[in-house]
TrEMBL record:
It is found in: Membrane. Keywords: Membrane, Oxidoreductase, Transmembrane, Transmembrane helix. GO terms for cellular component: cytoplasm; membrane. Residues 4-212 form the 3-ketosteroid-9-alpha-monooxygenase oxygenase component-like C-terminal domain. Pfam families: KshA_C. PANTHER family: CHOLESTEROL 7-DESATURASE NVD (PTHR21266:SF32), IRON-SULFUR DOMAIN CONTAINING PROTEIN (PTHR21266). This is Cholesterol desaturase daf-36. One of its GO terms (molecular function) is oxidoreductase activity.
Length: 228
């Protein structure tokens, strides 16, 4: 019975039509809503899951094929929660580079700034030295406690050929579908055994807890041997 405590921000470039709609993807994911944004804090998974080139597709059986081994994605990422009065928001900064035959290919350098607003909305802003700027809006809508509808919509500079943002959206889709494979086969542990590189996961869980009420549907998990 409590009214909204924060408002969804407006993306100025979309409102002024500097950036125009260039496409969208939609997926159903068999997972609890918290698992999806928690990915932002799990920076250690980037090299393993998203390091293999997108040319290998989204099927994890083939992403590490020697056929595509000549090309790699390299990620540097940092996640943090925002302070008051925006404690309902968090930030993820990603620096993406690509290597081809172990040589840096600067044309693929990309800076991504992802701002999460609330439990299910993310603004992923792209900055490229030659190909301009744009944004992907990610919305996560629970259909059932363990079924989420995830939509990605891309808006990009209207003076940039549509093929550029469509390629970016396709690349993002391939990487996201790799995550879906993991989520659909993952068991959530309330107290996972974490190494130092995974400390952001617990930090993210403490931040995300603010979005639950007393009546919220929470994950029911087994605590077999890991309830320390």
């Amino acid at each position: 019975g409590v009214g909204p405590t924060w408002a969804v921000p407006e993306q100025r470039e979309i409102t002024t039509k500097e950036w125009v709609f260039r496409g969208q993807t939609e997926h159903l994911v068999d997972v609890h809503i918290q698992e999806i944004p928690e990915n932002a804090a799990d920076t250690a998974h980037l090299a393993f899951l998203h390091g293999p080139t997108i040319l290998g597709g989204s099927d994890l059986r083939y992403t590490r094929s020697k056929l595509w081994d000549f090309m790699k994605h390299v990620w540097k990422a940092e996640w943090w929660p925002e302070p008051e009065p925006n404690e309902h928001c968090s930030q993820l900064l990603i620096q993406h580079t690509t290597t081809i035959f172990k040589k840096h290919f600067s044309l693929m350098d990309l800076t991504v700034s992802a701002r999460q607003v609330g439990p299910g909305l993310v603004f992923l802003t792209f900055e490229h030295a030659f190909l301009g700027h744009g944004i992907i809006l990610q919305t996560v809508t629970p259909l059932e406690p363990l079924l989420q509808n995830v939509v990605h919509k891309i808006y990009y500079q209207k003076n940039v050929p549509a093929i550029i943002p469509k390629f970016i959206l396709r690349a993002e889709c391939i990487q996201f579908e790799r995550d879906i494979t993991i989520w659909n086969n993952k068991q959530y542990l309330p107290k996972p055994l974490l190494v130092r590189e995974d400390s952001g996961i617990q930090k993210h869980r403490r931040w995300y807890a603010q979005f639950y009420s007393k009546k919220s549907v929470r994950l029911k998990v087994q605590k077999e041997g890991l309830d320390w």
